[in-house]
From TrEMBL:
InterPro entries: RNA_pol_sigma-70-like (IPR039425), RNA_pol_sigma-70_dom (IPR014284), RNA_pol_sigma70_r2 (IPR007627), RNA_pol_sigma70_r4_t2 (IPR013249), RNA_pol_sigma_r2 (IPR013325), RNA_pol_sigma_r3/r4-like (IPR013324), WH-like_DNA-bd_sf (IPR036388). Residues 7-73 form the RNA polymerase sigma-70 region domain. Belongs to the sigma-70 factor family. ECF subfamily. It comes from the Bacteria. The keyword Ribonucleoprotein does not apply. Keywords: DNA-binding, Sigma factor, Transcription, Transcription regulation. Residues 109-160 form the RNA polymerase sigma factor 70 region 4 type domain. PANTHER family: ECF RNA POLYMERASE SIGMA FACTOR SIGL, RNA POLYMERASE ECF-TYPE SIGMA FACTO. This is Sigma-70 family RNA polymerase sigma factor.
Length: 169
């Protein structure tokens, strides 16, 4: 096992790229990357070597992101309630520049469709696109062949292209 600073130096960029793919927000991804490594340090004793350390870290990153979303949802709901109680107007998307809204909605639509993919399609798609793992590495993670990883990734792309209508974005 590498020392913890070596693990950080080796995998921080990879984890950050994965989180950028999930969040579409570089600043948030950087913050969550730090939290991911903090959580990894706390639970390093549970890493058993069954998978690559990068995969283990990305799983922690995914859970860190989900926890962040839960906290934000609760915070947002409390903020909206407070604003309503004070009789303040709640900001809406139409207050934002039109281009920013379209871009954000497009990213959200694409990410929703990615997360609606069944496993292993979703995970393979994210491993290939966000972390840029090779098909050989993906095959190793799933104890399958490189060709299986290629075919599964291709099928994931097909499923996404069927679900995402560019005219609706």
């Amino acid at each position: 096992m590498e020392d913890l600073s070596g693990i950080y130096q080796s995998y921080a960029d990879e984890v950050k790229r994965f989180l950028i793919c999930l969040t579409s927000d570089v600043d948030l991804a950087e913050e969550l990357t730090q939290e991911t490594f903090y959580q990894a340090v706390k639970s390093i004793h549970r890493y058993n070597g069954d998978c690559k350390i990068s995969v283990w870290l990305c799983q922690i990153a995914k859970h860190t992101y989900y926890n962040y979303l839960k906290k934000e949802k609760n915070h947002h709901n409390a903020s909206v309630e407070n604003m309503m109680q004070l009789g303040l107007e709640i900001p809406s998307n139409k207050d934002l520049p039109e281009v920013a809204v379209i871009k954000r909605n497009t990213l959200i639509s694409i990410h929703k469709e990615i997360h609606r993919l069944q496993e292993p399609y979703r995970e393979i798609f994210l491993l290939r696109t966000s972390i840029q793992l090779s098909f050989k590495e993906i095959g190793e993670i799933f104890d399958k062949s490189e060709n299986w990883a290629r075919v599964t990734y291709y099928r994931a792309k097909l499923k996404l292209s069927e679900r995402i209508d560019p005219h609706e974005l």
